[in-house]
Amino acid sequence: MAKDRGEDKELKKGDDVTWRSHGGQAEGKVEKKITERTEAAGRTVDASPEEPQYQVRSDKSGGSAVHKPSALKKKK
Fold it and tell me: What CATH number was assigned to the domain covering residues 9-74?
């Protein structure tokens, strides 16, 4: 069964997610949805309401990162 890419678009604060990190799998929580160009996780994030990005915090390292919805998978 093909994965519907739209399923990851509606993430919210506190959601448990996974993403690829340095060839492995990272896990963490969504901290916030970013819908405008801003500075986050040490870089400029070029997000918009039409193309939001999500700030996540790694459970393992405690580090913060920003990812597009397509890079995040909500844990069941």
Answer: 2.30.30
